[in-house]
UniProtKB/TrEMBL annotation, chains A, B, C, D:
It comes from the Bacteria. SUPFAM superfamilies: Glyceraldehyde-3-phosphate dehydrogenase-like, C-terminal domain (SSF55347), NAD(P)-binding Rossmann-fold domains (SSF51735). InterPro entries: Gfo/Idh/MocA-like_OxRdtase_N, Gfo/Idh/MocA_oxidoreduct, GFO_IDH_MocA-like_dom, NAD(P)-bd_dom_sf. This is Predicted dehydrogenase. It comes from Paracoccus seriniphilus. GO terms for molecular function: nucleotide binding. Transmembrane segments: none annotated. Residues 5-134 form the Gfo/Idh/MocA-like oxidoreductase N-terminal domain. Residues 142-272 form the GFO/IDH/MocA-like oxidoreductase domain. PANTHER family: CONSERVED EXPRESSED OXIDOREDUCTASE (EUROFUNG), OXIDOREDUCTASE.
Length: 377, 377, 377, 377
């Protein structure tokens, strides 16, 4: 079983995201770290990559050097993970896709809708994978929920209600902390704060489980800490293409909520609930029946849930394994087994459209607007 | 300790609401059932009242007969509960208030905002109590939450998020059941379905705990079961007079949610959560600190929580005792001890305004509108 | 509907137990308080009874006076509740039973096994009810559990595991507080502390749900606070007459557990769990199937659960309504409708036997002993 | 950063335990799989090892071949994991320890107490690590609990109550399934069934968190499925060396409990609760105070918790990361940083002693017996 070769851009020493990707990529032995440009300080990055086992000639100083170095190798990397600051995602992903690499891009995939559309087109043209790291969608019980909906187990979906609301930016005395402040500063974060950061995970989850797309939306944004230019709390109502009603709340000032990412899906013949802090259970109620607890690892789950679970029932699998599941799907897809659950550029651009058009809607006092990227209208 | 004399209109045999009021009124021995017009069929009502211990001459055939019979008695009832169909609340409450009786009216207090304003004025003029049965506000831990907010324990309130969403009307095959259908038929239910039925409890709760009023709102209504003319799902965003952001979701098609009434209050220095299905706990997180479980009956609670709790810590007290707490407050108020937590006509009319103006907002695509009754602008 | 006449002994002003009984007895309008000897200070008791609405000639100074006064009245009380200090339960209950009154005795019913057996015999001889207030058994979902077991829904019961463990006596600095200390002082509490106080509720619950009796037991007692002569923590293993294995843990030093009364019942084809702090749900798992949440008030419950529930599904009913359910069963039984779920003297004497023989077992290093009162061997 | 070289014995294709160890060993990049004897069928094992990336000359046919092949290599493996059938643990571990290898042995470490004592002595003599895979002890919040106890945060521990009770062997119709049956067959499982399989995890956890040892015990064993010769349910009461009272329940017929491993620790000034199905929270109640939820990843945890947590607060980490934490401690210990939390041979032999002496106690009707291995008396 030859391992796939993996390269990483960003995720240097001390970052949170680097270890999460390495753990995810390496956990199942499908990839090996073969190349990297891990830090914005070339020497630091080169040294760290080598400490992580990368050969000296593939420990690059920056992404351009890496692109140069890898493009003509026979043993070039099979996958490049882009975990750099948000504003650079587009340029780097574009360059690697065009050079024929598969890419996993951190979210948000791009800053603008136009950039997102361009990545969709490049991915289509080159036939290379442009995945986006909506890793929560890779929890086994989220996959189970999606499969149940697809199979009609809860009937036509009427209503989806989701939240990604935490309280970790709720302390006004900490609001000037640079690690917090940049998210609410348009110069650094773009048009949106909390919705672009967390809300889009919830929006993707709604589309993912319902296997449907958001068509129109109406938004209400608020800066609960008044000094913030961008929103730290948002409510977005939406409608999906098959008529499903959607409600999405996201907040970073909900003190006492730790992660606070949850989804409820209500169909004609049943309801589902999932909560990211207890990800190994899916709560299911058939209409007129009793609420049931579906456990990760139990017998009779859909394949999508079973294949992404490593240890027995009631042995919890957490966030690192969800990231690992994204890499499993990537390995399968690279090796020729299509994985249509893998979040890709089309998902990324839909998110960016929802962000931009939510901002527009909120500015217009909640007016209903088209939520779709122009290319998908 | 002479018991107060209590009369009831509506709540006949087989109704759900009758036993809840009798249990609430009688539980603490402050009231005795002295008069009643319990059924729309005069003879049935008279007979039932006597079976419940009402003297034959005070077992009335209808509310007009009861008003006639009671108004000139020396031992007239101290309190009249109005638990008749919604459309009759106004007329009956008005008549008894004007005749100098204290009234507890079921919700919704009136059908129109104008009627609501009239009851406020009559109550003021006569000096008689016109209470509204927002009984969830009388759970001890809801009172604790209100007292904590008033005392500044969570700082200025930034955000309040509430839901009253259940799934008991989610079965389309049962939608023609008359006990369900009327709620979504404008001829019987008025301008609103689920929001008028359940949403106003949540809206009242938000105002009650924050001790603040809703000033503006923007609404999104949906009929998830398409045959319904009125909404079975609604989202209302709002702002309160001191700037608090509000989010309220109400649904009757959320299959798997049983009662589904909950509230989260986020302030500058802490957050609170309360859930009506586990009403004896209040979840509190100080900013930067750990989440704590506040238990009904523990030492050191605010007086409003302590005085409305009957049995020791961790002995749960449920819905019947919440209704009983409304009657305790009424008994106190009638006997001269003001209870400013008691929901009254001003609360009732604010609810009706919110219902009507939410309908307007939803029709206008979520436009922000003034939520206040004209008399309070 | 004439109300039954009710008399109470003990439960004076300021006691916890008085209000709980009054609330329970009066909540459903089946009883009226007609007589009372409420306080060990005759004048105080007479005055308080009158304040509660008892006629002056039936407001007695002590229980003997009450027995004298009531026995020859035509309108004598239909039921006497004995809520006096434990050591007096036997004498008072015996006297009233022998005079032809129905009795509800607080737990523990007696101090010795012999006294308990005598009450069983007197109750049989006189045909009068001698009930014991094991009120937790009257929660609707406990009745549902019992009915499920009786109906074979979980097959033959293999194992029952129960606990009644709280932490309210866990503070050594408070151990000399007289309200705590007496429970661990043999001069006042008898042979057992925590097991006699709380453990017997759990033991009764196990027998009640399984509809079976404890036959043998082995006990381990500990005084976690060393200054205590009687146990504040105990484990009792037992076997029931049909071979069911039992495990019972009770503690008063389990800091952080508030009420901590729970039971798990495991049969050949399913398992059940119930927790007194969330009494409105019963957790059920069929063998090989998913865990389900059974809700108080849902459709299709057994009659025993449905008839003892007052308000709709997901409207919680708490401890006061469980006590009220005991009084409902008493009212039914007095009026001729047998209620075999009502805990009676046979249950009381079994508890006392278990207490005494557990003490013996613990002293003998956990030796297995017969748990049955001699009269039931 | 050179990776440590790791060898594995057992854990062949299709086993549950193999992937868990590989994931744990490889997740953090501290080890690489350098050698293996993975299957009892030599060719199958060799082939599988090579598929996992092991060089052909280190893909061995059995453990003796591996010992032979590795002992004289300069680049011999730094750690050998023994994940073979229970009866072979002793022989293999002994051989590798004596040859100067560090060993991680699956539980139970040995079959007899004597063998366990021998491993302790060999480990001492050779100075090599003989670790035992009590991996639940490596959850960050278990480490936090241990650190809190060590730091006196709950005062002297009075009482520890633990359970490892599931229902996965509760189906009598499945009892002859060979994967279930062997556990209750003395010929294959030795003297104990469920206690040896799961109970010892709970027993180790009690000792681990309390940092104390079990001194005496009294046991009650039952075969709830009568055809089983060994117990499927057991209760063990114990006392620790500093007087702590212990209660341990283990069962495999508790239908509805999925994993069911939990522990409660009660001290003079506080209580702790942890549950393996929600391993990222630790519940803490200071005496006289409110229950608090301690979250993995929150600020201010003890180092032992912080260093073993990879992703941010409220991003759950599950069972695979707990196993990985054992390997982290092993890597540290091999590289010279002592990790006294690592479970070692002394822990393994104490478990075996508890198993054997519990069996004795149960046979003697619950007699209290010394629980310690002779070498530690």
């Amino acid at each position: 079983m030859t391992k796939l070769k993996w390269g990483m851009i960003g995720g240097g020493e001390g970052s949170q995201i680097g270890p999460a990707h390495r753990l995810g990529a390496l956990a199942d032995g499908r990839f090996e770290l073969a190349a990297g440009a891990l830090d914005h300080r070339p020497e630091v990055g080169r040294e760290y990559a080598q400490r992580l086992g990368v050969a000296a000639d593939r420990a690059y100083g920056d992404w351009k050097e890496m692109l140069q170095g890898e493009r003509d190798r026979e043993d070039r990397v099979d996958l490049v993970t882009v975990a750099t600051p948000n504003s650079t995602h587009f340029e780097i992903s574009k360059a690697f896709l065009e050079a024929g690499f598969n890419v996993l891009c951190e979210k948000p995939m791009t800053v603008t809708v136009e950039e997102g559309e361009e990545l969709v087109r490049i991915s289509e043209k080159t036939g290379k994978i442009c995945a986006v790291n909506y890793c929560y969608s890779a929890y086994p019980m989220v996959r189970q929920a999606r499969a149940m909906v697809a199979n009609g187990d809860i009937g036509k979906v009427r209503l989806v209600v989701t939240a990604f609301s935490h309280g970790h930016h709720g302390d006004a005395t900490d609001a000037d902390n640079p690690r917090v402040r940049w998210r609410y500063d348009p110069a650094m974060a773009g048009v949106s704060g909390q919705f672009a950061d967390c809300g889009i995970h919830a929006l993707h989850m709604a589309s993912f489980i319902c296997n449907d797309e958001v068509e129109t939306l109406s938004a209400d944004f608020a800066s609960c800490i008044a000094s913030r230019e961008l929103e730290d709390d948002a409510m977005v109502n939406f409608r999906m293409s098959r008529g499903t009603v959607g409600r999405l709340w996201t907040s970073s000032v909900a003190i006492g909520r730790q992660h606070g990412f949850e989804i409820q899906v209500f169909g004609e013949t049943g309801g589902l609930r999932w909560f990211s802090e207890q990800p190994n259970q899916l709560i299911y109620t058939p209409v007129g029946g009793r609420t049931q607890i579906i456990e990760k690892g139990e017998g009779g789950l859909y394949d999508e849930a079973t294949r992404l679970s490593r240890v027995a029932i009631a042995h919890p699998e957490g966030f690192p394994m969800a990231v690992a599941n994204i890499y499993c799907d990537l390995a399968d897809a690279i090796q020729g087994q299509a994985r249509d659950s893998l979040p890709v550029a089309a998902d990324g651009v839909r998110s960016m459209a929802a962000v931009h058009y939510s901002v527009d809607s909120a500015k217009q006092g909640g007016a209903w607007v088209d939520a779709r990227p122009p290319m998908f209208r």
